[in-house]
Amino acid sequence: MVKRPQGLNKSSKSKKKQRVTSELPSGNGGEPEQVTIELDHEVDPDDELGQLNALYDTFVNSPVDNNGFKSPKLLYGVIHECDRLLRNATGALPSRFHNVYALSLLELSKFHVSEGEKRSQQSEQQDEDMPVDTTEAYIEAAIDRADVGLAADEKSPDLLFTRAKAEIALISVKINDVTLTPGVRYMVAVEMIENIQKAIKDYEVAESIILDSPESDANKKKGCLYTKDQLDTIESLLKIAENFNSLEYEREIAPFETNSDPAFEKVDGPLLAEQQRKLAEWSKKRWEQILEKVPEGKGKGKTPEEDGDHSYAVIRRANRGMGEYYLSISAPIISRLEASDDDDGDDDDDDDDDEEVTEEKLNDFQTAKGLLTKAIEYLLKAEHDSEHDAAVYPLIAEAQISLANLLDNDSDEQNVLYNEAVARLKKAQRLGYGDYQEQIAELEL
Amino acid sequence: MTSSTKRENETVQEGEEVKRSKVEDEVKESSAFPAGKSAFSEGLFNDERKDGLKKYIEDSGPYKHGVIQPLVNDELLRKVRKEIMEEIMFTKKETDIYKVYQTGDLANLSGLGEEELKRLSSLNTLRNALYSQEFRDYLSYVTGAGPLSGVKKDLSINVYQKGCHLLNHDDVIGSRRVSYILYLPDPDEPWQAKWGGALRLYSTLTPNIPSTDWELKIPPAWNQLAFFTVQPGLSFHDVEEVYVDKPRMSISGWFHIPQPGEPGFIEGEQEEIEGLSSLKQLESKKLEEYDYPKEEQHKPSEEVDVTKFEQDDRDYLAKYLNEKLLDEGSLEKLNETFCNESMIEINDFLNAEYAKIVKEAIDVDDIAKVPGKSTEVPQPWEVARPPHKARYLYLGEHSQKVEPTKTLAAHTKLQEVRELFQSVAFYRWLYKLSGMAPESDSVIARRFRPGYDFTLATTSNSEDSVLEGTLSLTPSKGWLDGEVGGYELTMSVDEESKEADPAVYGAQTEGDDDPVLLTSQANWNVFSLIVRDSGILRFVKYVSRNATGSRWDVSATWQVQPSEDDDEEGEETEN
């Protein structure tokens, strides 16, 4: 027998009447509410470490908000649990515990202000109740935690990767301190070179364990040993290289600027240029190694869920990394070309100079085209119809737009690239990855 | 069987009457702006300039309007802006027709205490200047609109933040004679047209029927006054969405016809205007011939017994629907839920394989350039109109068959889903789910484009209950918090006034008085079904240009066999 309902309006009105009469005191006597968190995968309730891992994985897989941040509530939960386990521990805790603890502290550092921001806020507001904990303090706590874990298990690749990631994060915060003048930041960056080497060493040791050890050779699933966290460190280092490049540029132009930072006067020669090149090459080498040594999974699926092997994802990430590398090294050349285009507008120099400039420009032009073509080639290999890989769409679009800008205006080739770039920006946007309305509107005109 | 709702809140201004009897304003102007100095820009009242403006207005289209810039003394207006920023609180208001941050009515500034008035002295000076005899005479002369009231001051301050908008309407309410907007964006950062927020004027196909596309755009500018004579059935306009994170501040209001006791007052004039009101015209049957899509009932080609759900029906539906929805046990549970709630939302409605095919087709159109003006809309899509009721793209009963291309493919699969909803097998499945036997249907596939589309609230004319279902097929992300609109809202009509007031849905969200019965966010592969009885109002909220894609859905109404006793809840019918 099939039942027939009332109309929605009528039903809602009769329910309202019912509700008035059926409301009862809640009866929990004001007890604080227990929050229940649904874990991503099932774990034995008696396995406390398993529960901790699952809780951290739930955070890793949780959705991001419009600003690209995950909710820190789960992180506080993880740290609370870590503290409890630490207090109750009767013996040594495994490296996985220390790793989850360190990674959680590192993630939590993103929700705090840096020392520089704190200083500037305090001077602006004269407020003495500023947060005590800073980004740096959380990162340092993460490094300490990794140190503790590594003291017991010095060959833990996870902990080595995590320490490298934390070290790089700390360097990044320090050289991006906007409260410092460019000249001072330049000197901070120089001081950080040694720390970078330390992070690189940690990373390389961990990497060789994964890629070269007989154990990992045996299972032929080296890709599965990498996590997203670890691979993101390479990208962070490439960003530091880009920062070095900008700082070096500021140092170069300082003598010609009227209001240049006097701190640059104390700098003797280009100290970051060579480092920038080395770091960029280092990042390239990492991706090349993965592409060379990680075999593609044997399963048919293209996701770890489908075949239990996320080698495909790691290989795609490596291709994206290669693309990012080529994009990164093309950027200063493109800037030079744009600057020379601006200069050409009001250039009254004689013909000889013009010829010289033109030759140099032609070289830059060909080099930029070559690098961007390479970038696109790799990035296209990283393109995959999945919301987890949405980051690659705007990268391809950026490379395509940059390449199109070097081509003849309104040529078919240029229009094809612009159209493809727009389609990818839209794809990224539709997956909630960034807001490209303005660029789309300009290119669609 | 729907018709547009009679609404009191056609525009942002709530139309509150000003209860004052004194003709002269007794408020003393403040010393913040020097007394004796003109509140207006230099040369505004110059005869040559005045006649130039009069001529411009006479020749203007799509209907008579004017623009003055600069209107106000720059020093005064900067002070006004500063006061507003420092002293006035704004409240977000959102209904089917607008989203805006607004102050209360500014008409009664003179009712404020001395201290409060001091803090708003420049604003008070400006308000009094706008409603001064001198300026009213000036406006009356250039517009030829007739005398304007100095007693009935009717103005408010609006801030359009990112995403704010006001949809199409003609401003005709009560005694309004001239509408105006005085723009106060940041004076030191010139407003750019691409930031949106423009006043857009529409021509009419015939009185009371605005054209689908706007004809003229007046972007905001510092110290610019845009105004027009309120013309019943003609002065259709909207405010373009603000696309960026920059506040578009304005003072907007109306000059009214002279009130009793004022020079120029004519007994019965207001009633005459109200007689022409578009609100009344909206209900006119004659104008329905301009409404698209046409509401057409489709019936199965032969008489069928919809109460028999056979294996053939299951086999047919299995090609499209999630197999769990065809299971006898699941259907019983769904029926139980539906009978209890009179509504249901089903996730993963289409099976994964078919949903993937549909998504791939929709992705093609969603990534291609969004067709904007109605002339750009490709066949087989048509534009729902007129835009003071709705605007969206649709595929209906008579849409053409068009082969898919590299940029146009969604229609092929949406037509399939539309036909699925019209099939006898689906009628039978619906009967199993709802206990209501479909007799005929009206199904359209819809696309709500970012920056263009919406439906305004409609109520059902019929006393008979119908089944209304929407399968949301929106593949893009970013809709769930409702900030970019695109949600379908179902609410009950206010029982006291017997009128639907979509203004209340934003204000009441908790407790028994919440009129909102269901909010369905744009989503992927979610089917919602309700029993629509009388007293229900529905609309799809305007989709912001900042949405990451279009809202796509298939929307259906099934007329059902009336039950013997509709009052009986949970009635059992023969299977």
TrEMBL record, chain A:
The GO cellular component terms are:
nucleus
Q: Provide this UniProt record's keywords sorted from A to Z.
A: Nucleus, Transcription, Transcription regulation, Translation regulation
Q: Does the keyword Transcription apply?
A: yes
Is the keyword Heme assigned to this protein?
no
Which processes are annotated in GO (biological process)? positive regulation of SREBP signaling pathway; regulation of translation
Annotated region Disordered: where?
1-33
Coarse class of the protein's main subcellular location: nucleus
Q: Where in the cell is it found?
A: Nucleus
Q: Which family does it belong to?
A: Belongs to the ETT1 family.
What is the official name of this protein in its record?
Enhancer of translation termination 1
TrEMBL record, chain B:
Gene3D superfamilies given in the database record = Oxoglutarate/iron-dependent oxygenase, C-terminal degradation domain, q2cbj1_9rhob like domain
UniProt keyword terms in alphabetical order: Dioxygenase, Iron, Metal-binding, Nucleus, Oxidoreductase, Vitamin C
Recorded catalytic activity of this chain's protein: [ribosomal protein uS12]-(3S)-3-hydroxy-L-proline + 2-oxoglutarate + O2 = [ribosomal protein uS12]-(3S)-3,4-dihydroxy-L-proline + succinate + CO2; [ribosomal protein uS12]-L-proline + 2-oxoglutarate + O2 = [ribosomal protein uS12]-(3S)-3-hydroxy-L-proline + succinate + CO2
Tell me its cofactors.
L-ascorbate
Q: Is Oxidoreductase set as a keyword in this record?
A: yes
Q: Which residues form the Fe2OG dioxygenase domain?
A: 147-257
Biased composition range(s): Basic and acidic residues:
1-29
Q: Which InterPro entries match?
A: Oxoglu/Fe-dep_dioxygenase_dom (IPR005123), Oxoglutarate/Fe-dep_Oase_C (IPR019601), Pro_4_hyd_alph (IPR006620), TPA1/Ofd1_C (IPR043044), TPA1/OFD1_N (IPR039558), uS12_prolyl_hydroxylase (IPR051842)
Where are stretches of biased composition, namely Acidic residues? 563-575
Q: Where is this region: Disordered?
A: 1-38, 556-575
Can you say where in the cell this protein is located?
Nucleus
The keyword Metal-binding appears for this protein: yes
Its GO CC terms?
cytoplasm; nucleus
Listed GO MF terms: iron ion binding; L-ascorbic acid binding; peptidyl-proline dioxygenase activity
PROSITE patterns documented for this protein: FE2OG_OXY (PS51471)
Tell me, what is an example of a GO biological process annotation in this record? positive regulation of macromolecule metabolic process
**Family listed:** Belongs to the TPA1 family.
The name of this protein is uS12 prolyl 3,4-dihydroxylase
Which species is this UniProt entry from?
Trichomonascus ciferrii
